[in-house]
Design brief:
The complex is a heterotrimer of chains A (about 950), B (about 90) and C (about 425). By secondary structure, chain A is α+β, with helices and mostly antiparallel strands. The radius of gyration of chain A is 38 Å and the shape is elongated. Chain B has one domain: Folate-binding superfamily (Folate-binding fold), CATH 3.30.2270.10. In chain C, about 30% of the residues lie in helices and about 25% in strands. In chain C, β15 and β16 form a beta hairpin. The longest helix of chain C is centred in the N-terminal third of the chain and has 16 residues. Chain C starts with 6 loop residues before the first helix and ends in a 5-residue tail after the last helix. The chains are: A alpha+beta (about 950), B mainly beta (about 90), C alpha/beta (about 425). Chains A and B meet through α17 of A and α1 of B. β33 of chain A pairs antiparallel with β17 of chain C.
Chain lengths: ~950, ~90, ~425
Amino acid sequence: MTASRLATGGSAIDRSRPIRFSFDGATVHGYAGDTIASALLAGDVAVVGRSFKYHRPRGIWSAGVEEPNALVDVGGSVPTTPNTRATTEPARDGLVARSVNAAPSALADRNAFLDRFARFIPAAFYYKTFMWPDWHRFEPRIRAMAGLGKVDAGWTSAGTADQINHHCDVLVVGAGPAGLAAVRLASGAGLSVMLVDDQPKPGGSLGHRAGEIDGKPAAAWIAETVAELAAAGQLILPSTTAFGIYDHNLVGLNQRHCDGRPDTLWRVRPRQIVLATGAIERPLPFANNDLPGIMSADAALAYLRRHAVLVGRRIVLATNNDSAYEVATALAEVGADVTLVDIRRDGTPPTPANVGLVKGRALTSATGKLRVDGVTLDDGTRLGTDCVLISGGWTPTIHLFGQAKGKLAWSEARAAFLPGDPVDGIAVAGAAAGAVSLSEVFAGAGNAVTSSGQKKAAIPHSTGLEATGGITAAWPMPGSKGRIWIDYQNDVTVKDVELAARENFVSVEHLKRYTTLGMATDQGKTSNLPGLALMAGITGRTVPEVGTTTYRPPFTPVPLASFAGARVGELMAPVRRLPLETIHRANGAVFQEYGGWLRPAHYGGNADAERSIADEARRARQSVALFDGSTLGKIEVIGPQAAAFVDFLYYNTMSTLKPGRCRYGFMLSENGVVFDDGVLVRLDEQRFVVSCSSSHVAAVHARLEEWRQDRFGRGAVYIHNATSDMATLTVSGPNARKLLETLDLGLSLDDSDLPHMAVGHGTYAGDEVRVARVSFTGDRSYEISIRADRAEPLWAQLRRAGQAFDVVVIGLEALMILRAEKGFIVIGKDTDGTTLPHDLGVDGPRAKRQSEFVGRRSLFTEEAARDNRMQLVGLAVPQGEAPLATGAHGIKRIDGGLRSQGFVTSSYQSPTLGRPVALGLIERGAARHGETIEIQHLGKIRTATIAPPCAFDPAGDRLHA
Amino acid sequence: MQLFPCPFCGSRDETEFHYGGDAGNIRPDGAEVPIDRWADYLYLRTNPKGTAREIWVHMNCGEFFVMERDTVTHKVLSSAALGGEHAA
Amino acid sequence: MTTRYSALSLFREGLAGQTGWQPAWRSPEPKPSYDAIVIGGGGHGLATAYYLAKNQNIARVAVLEKGWIGGGNTGRNTTVVRSNYYYPESVELYGLAHRLYEGLSKDLNYNVMLSQRGMVNLCHSTAEMEIGARTVNAMQINGIDAELFSPEDVRRVAPIYNFSPDARFPVFGGIWQGRAGTARHDAVAWGYARAASRLGVDIIQNCEITDFIIEGGRCRGVQTSRGAIRAERIGMAVAGHSSVLAAKAGFRLPINSYALQACVSEPVKPILDTVVLSPGCGVYVSQSDKGEIVIGGGLDRIPSYAQRGNLPTLETVIAGVLEMFPIFGQLKLMRQWAGIVDVVPDSSPIIGESPLPGLFLNCGWGTGGFKAIPAGGTLLANLLATGKHNDISRPFDLDRFATGRLIDEAAGSGIAH
């Protein structure tokens, strides 16, 4: 045994609650409060993973989010999650953990042989080979090798993630000494505060580093602070990571619950952000510095104090800075044999008791196979060991500051980038700002709060021994012997960085992309700075000259489910629903989505849909049909300039329309393309109703508002979208009038009073109804609009009264057949984004209109005047043949090849005509009626005859029948 | 998530707004407008890197307005209801 | 020194500690003048320089890059290569690019890892299937490989898709292009840079254009942060910043700059073999050779030059991903980023001489520039060498905004706007 659990201590663990879980199939014991990593260490499990490329054995490096090595897939008693960090994942009873990128286990990985070929597969080797005969020959095997964790194909969601919006005066990120002090000050000043920390308990480094504050031990001060905040009603979220600062200082948080519930996403909009995010300890460069058993010194101290785990018995602690001395002292106190190797000769802190100190020496290499067993110093001294701890200095965690576009400033004294010029609304405090001693930390926290305009309050005082920040930088050096790792997870070594420099990948972004340095799941938290410092050394530049790569969210990986939240299934993209949906469902309607609306496609259930549709279409022509047309747009245009307004908005002149009458017309886009079609109703001199197509209501409404405000003025016209206020029930067919006459609507249905394209007003059961005689079927039709919430009795009565006329309720599919028989178009189906009004045979306004309208100038471009434009036609095929495929193209044979000359836009079997009908957009089609054209669909060719669009009742007699 | 100031409703999330193009892009009327002038109105954009004057609509209230903002830093400089050059 | 890349040279260098490799490209000081200048060291600019040297025998060429090569959209996209286009003009353009991509690794002696594992554009309704059929038929007529997939076909290539009966966007079928796939984006930039450099092209990084030298109404060179550099023919391929350079040259373009975001999950073992695009979910997804799930969605809705991701668009995109692939609910987002793209009214590129004679444009690629790099380079090189369009580039000239002859792929899908 080398690593072990001490008999006493451990502030995080609860020895009364033992737990058991498995790692790579072996049982691991621990206590509530353990992380997977602390329990593995307590069980002396050295090899916990394999590196991405060379499959090197790897041990636990850290005790936090920066962990590059200890990734595990978890499952069992916890939700299945690939690639979790063992160092932050709570150990739970019944959890099943598996090492990633290793088979059958991390200890005995069958791909470990790859490391022997490492010299042939350096950084970016894949760009130089696998070209012959072809990359596809090699790729499948390489893909199979890549990736870390495994996706569980049988996974199902345990529920959707909550998403919470929150506002506060001050958001403090990090509950270490700086964060706690800042939040206490802000709270004391009467501000609303939110404190978040990614650890399960507040305290940060105070949880394992010594400290005495305001005369109390750190733990007491933390407890007191937390109690005070709770009493003041402030929000404290442990196990919560601030992963991103977005535009206008919106902060994204991911809160873990660790009880099986999905994480929660918080969007926080604070007035002031205080980043007290601490610092991350760096490795030191020496050969084989990636061996299991080599660990961050601070992590060793954290495991000791929090989990009572002593990570080794014969410990070599290599350092270049003062922070390691406290670690050495603590380890020696619990009986470890500690040798402290300090790169510095002078200016070191006092030698800790019972610690062997070697000054002015650095490690040059480590030895061992599956675990470190010795090190060599630069004077050749060999030391046997079972654990090597590294303290290579501190990299302030300034990711969020960088994300907020904060500029960084290089500090030679700290050997680190620190926050530079301040960013509006963001203050950085504590170790993240380069502070070392608690008194510095508290002073910085005080400034962070007072800088937001609060009056100065009493800051806490460190009354204990003060940490010191002496450091001598020890960056990886070019020309070093052996294999020195910089990025552990992605297997980037000093030689790889040298190779990148040799090949001119000297820009820091090129370095990253070429070698993949910093692109692993840890996003380079321990490797970026050493890597760019090495590049600086190789290229004779300073570290700030090399610069950093861009800081990008998220700070640590965030569950996709957190971002999606409740936007799952229908809530991902809600559909619009008809007021009468339940009635239609009860009547056997089969619903489909059309242009964002859920509408009855047909009735009669799912069985034999085609026959149901054909029956509906046939019967509609025989007597009378009912159709729910409530989705039809009903946008009112009201005001003194309403007539001028609709003239400008429509391609057709509308101001000549008489009150009580309707007119069909197009709306164009400014590029001349037909944007929408429909009927405009004039109710009176200053009042119109725009009946736009169902799927265009929102867009047409926006367009009307735009021109109203931008051209006519707010007082000239007023726009009201009444689409969802009213239901529209359509009665169509030869017996439509007879059916309507059975209802007492209080208006004359006489053709002289209500002719085709007229509108009348009546009442039904005390509610006003508007009856418009417009037809999309080609038969006499009445569209009855009534308050949406009163439509149900009217619909019911129409159905009841209709029984005498063999009424048929039709869905949208039958309507599509009826309108196609008539050659009536659906915008976006029978037109495309190039269709101009004259392509549809409506050239009058283009030729004659004198007044201005939207899209006018675009109707006179070279393109608009082209003589081979695609024009709307009918396409006839002989009786007995199947309908043409919608989407089939008309083709021309040119020089042995094919060229499209248009396509089929709508195609149906007409039950009334007993033959197929089709519409299409065909080159020069209007002048080619009677011509035969070849139509190709999925490689098969057939012929059709170009015909007028209208195949049924071309004279229009049935409108008045 | 940016916050935009609707002159009518105050500060709201960016998702409530829709971009409406360059402010001051005056529409030339008439069927005889030179085609280059028409294409200029229809298609050409200033697209400045830095301060931009743009038309926006707050979709919740339906009002169009002019907003000045920085397209790099996303700092909002001003917003005002449509008027003057755009009002009838 | 080792110059040629091969398994053998890699083996030899392995024995020699990988110390014999030459710089992938030279970084010389800029000369005072060149035969041609290409502004922009992204994929399109570097490809232009390469094809100038290779196809047009013009090797006195400088590529001027404001930052580091491949640092714009070339290094920020989702690496999809496809040519499933509707209009014949687009097919010619993207078809050329696709064919060149297929030979690119050998041509450049640089493995760009073109991985043709296919792409399916899903159809979620009968109406979308009709448009799908229209598109597939157009592609087949225009000589591009395409198939109309049934739901069973989709299940075969993407078995982990959400085929549940209550899926928000059920699968009715899809448009399949088997030759589509992905390529390693950085490698495309570096491969072109290396090949161009070896043919004599000077690649000048950290060289920002401050102004154009205009004499006699013609562009004769550029002022840069590294001094004046002259040439009679100047091309610009600076996606995202085209309007900024155009303003310096005194004209405007039909372009708005928007951020386009992408993101990747943590790497996982292979689970998704093809590129899957769902128009309903507004997302397309693939899995990289490293194992990351690569996710792309729609544009941000706010014109911007800030190369950073935001939260609302990300949330929308991720919701779409999980609707497509519910089992990705166990994955975590690892990295989010954004590039600035040129958005043109018809979403087709602009290739041709600018209103300033002597200055030629390669811009307006919108969200799809990466797949077109070899064609964009070939066409701009042809323009710079000859001053004239060829049949492939002519339809994409800036003059189409006056003639009205736009090439709008969305219009072909029935979208009126």
